[in-house]
Amino acid sequence: MECAGAKAAIASLWQVSDGGTQALMESFYNAIQDLRLTKAEVLAKSQRAMIASSKDSGFSHSYYWSTIGRRLSSLATNFR
């Protein structure tokens, strides 16, 4: 992806819940419209929103989306 010109990539280290990933990415793409935040800050904001989400949603536990966060956190120095 980098060779193709991508400035940033979102990936998972292993298989994760489709529903949890969808919820996290919806939150991420809604929050990224705030141009004052870096992508890493947007990710952190999205993770906090997932944790604070209703237990009824079924995705508040990091089990459903944390591998994405870990992967992006390891890229955070280049993830602006």
What is the topology?
Layout: H1 18-31, H2 39-52, H3 66-74
Helix pairs in contact: 1-2, 2-3
- Distance linking N and C termini: 16 Å
Low-confidence stretches: none
Largest sheet report: none
Radius of gyration, in angstroms, nearest whole number: 13 Å
User: Mean pLDDT, rounded to whole units?
Assistant: 76
Broad structural category: mainly alpha
State which percent range the strand residues make up. Answer: under 5%
Percent helix: 40-55%
Contiguous helical run count: 3
Number of strands: 0
Whole-number tally of structural domains: 1
Shape: flat
Order of SSEs: HHH
Task: Explain how this protein is built.
- This protein has 80 residues and is mainly α.
- It has one domain.
- It is built from 3 helices and no strands.
- It has helices at residues 18-31, 39-52, 66-74.
- Helix 2 runs antiparallel to helix 3 (66-74).
- The longest helix has 14 residues, at 18-31.
- The radius of gyration is 13 Å and the shape is flat.
